[in-house]
Amino acid sequence: MRIRREEGMARQGPPTGPLGDETYTVGDMSEPLPPLDLRNVAILSDEVYETIGAAILDGRLQPGQKLRDVELAAQLGISRTPVREALQRLERFGLVEVAAGRYTRVTEPDRRLREETAELTAHLMGVALRLALAACDDEALAVILADADIVVDAASVGDIPTLFASSTRMFTAVTRATGNSVFIGLVREASLAIRRNLRGWDAFLEGPVEGIDGYTALRACIAARDGDGAEQALRRIYGYA
Question: Are 118 and 197 within one domain?
């Protein structure tokens, strides 16, 4: 996928977009967030992060909707502290924006945010391929290749939804196959933003080589356990080679 930056686009500062200077009507969620199971307190912060993030992904929390920690905490049946921590994490990945003392609200991905997410994804997944192809067993490799075949088929017909879903599934398998707990945790943290910001983006197939050729080359490198080649093929697809 070639990332074409619009002329004059600034590279500094936080992402801005349709939510930047406009006023939005705050609507209630059609379906409140379900209470969390508090039996495992050790992972409460992660649970809150993933629960709110999932609500953003599936549309229960709409772009422009204001988020109040008191209301979210009441719906989830927890204190405000883990909710605040979760919102701070979501802000770091651009899923919410915070104006101190004024509001916290769900963002809408604009072109710049999508481009920056694609750049992050290209580099993360390049590292994942290097780690996984050096470490995984044949069974794990077979799972990755099965997903890669679906990716190639989807790219060949320009099926963007299937390409996105199968690419996500393939790189989930690649990340797991690294066996590196620190890296897996890093990708897990970023995965909500990656899925939300890149989903449905038509630029997904654009690239300096034909989409199908790029994905076919990537699949061949994976089959050969060529980590360097797989990383380069992936970056060519994204336009970062």
Answer: yes
Q: Return the closest-CA partner of residue 169 out of 134, 125, 208.
A: 125
Interval 15-40: pLDDT, tens: 333 223 333 333 445 566 666 554 45
Let me know whether 138 and 97 are in one domain: no
What is the rounded average pLDDT of the residues 156-184? 91
Q: Comparing 82-86, 113-117, 231-235, which segment has the lowest mean pLDDT?
A: 113-117
- Say if strands 96-99 and 103-106 run parallel, antiparallel, or are unpaired: antiparallel
On whether the CB atoms of residues 181 and 173 are closer than 8 A, the answer is no
Q: Do the Cβ atoms of 208 and 239 come closer than 8 Å?
A: yes
Statement to judge: residues 102 and 115 lie in one domain: no
- In angstroms, rounded to a whole number, what is the distance separating the alpha carbons of residues 92 and 115? 16
For residue 64, give its domain range.
Answer: 41-106
Q: Which of 213, 206, 204 is nearest to 118 (CA)?
A: 204
Domain check: are 170 and 63 in the same one?
no
Q: Hey, what are 24's tokens?
A: 């939005």
pTM for the complete prediction? 0.68
Shared domain check, 146 and 203: yes
Segment 117-141 shows an average pLDDT of: 94
Distance CA 28, CA 139 (A): 47
